[in-house]
Amino acid sequence: MGSPPMIDGAFARWLASRAGQALLGLRAEMGFADPGALKSAGDKVSHDLIRTELAKWRPGDAVLSEEDEGSRLAWAAEVNVGAVSRLTADRVWIVDPLDGTREFAEEQRSDWAVHVALWSRTAPTPHGLVAGAVGLPAQHRVLATDYPPAYPPMTVEAATAGGRVIRLAASRSRPPVFLSDLAEDVGAHLVPMGSAGAKIAAVVTGEVDAYIHAGGQYEWDSAAPVAVATATGLHASRIDGSALKYNEADPRLPDLLVCRKDLAPRLLAALQRHSG
């Protein structure tokens, strides 16, 4: 295989695609009889591939990965060399090798993803993300910042006279406790989905109108999807409206809102009423 693309956005797309192909191959090889073993193998195969390719093609960059404990411990007492390097680096790849391990290990499910994002100290945006890709291997597509999708089309419901029904992506297993009340308040319909990447990708493509999460996440859960969403022109923020920030000492990033810009004021106002 030849060299990957040099431009960061295209490289992120290439890397997410490579990892996705490996995960599809693993699924076909192992089957679904032992979900626990498949989950563990998926995390390892994708992580090892991504780390190997980053070391080869971006050796001067730091990495923050869900599967790399050394890069995560920057806020803990046992700070180590790997953790410190990402906090002082100018460029950091933030990756989730397999977002949605539960869905990955369930036959026929396609709502799992591979996240590859690049944070830069010199980025012009508050979140610092300058490139990203969300691979959706079982859906045979990759959404990336090198060729971001067009701003999502208005839904059929939105075009109907007399108001709009907001389609709100929600966790299959851990939706925020206030989400049902908020949905009733704004006239939203909850659409259960799997991984965070799949839910934000659904906002990017117009399959749903918004995604709200407040149950606890980490930077790798949202970095790549947020990079693509904001490149598309969507709104992305904390649920209090403040900016999302990445490559922080503590990588916990517990809540976020990603939605069409025209819906942001309405949803943020509803969040003030219901998330406290």
From TrEMBL:
Binding site for Mg(2+): E66, D96, L98, D99, D221
Gene Ontology molecular function: 3'(2'),5'-bisphosphate nucleotidase activity; metal ion binding
Alphabetized Gene3D superfamilies for the sequence: 3.40.190.80, Fructose-1,6-Bisphosphatase, subunit A, domain 1 (3.30.540.10)
Keywords: Magnesium, Metal-binding
Co-factor(s): Mg(2+)
InterPro entries assigned: CysQ/Inositol_MonoPase (IPR050725), Inositol_monophosphatase-like (IPR000760)
Pfam family, one: Inositol_P
One of the GO BP terms on file: 3'-phosphoadenosine 5'-phosphosulfate metabolic process
UniProt-listed PANTHER family: 3'(2'),5'-BISPHOSPHATE NUCLEOTIDASE 1
UniProt name for this protein: 3'(2'),5'-bisphosphate nucleotidase CysQ
Organism annotation: Micromonospora costi
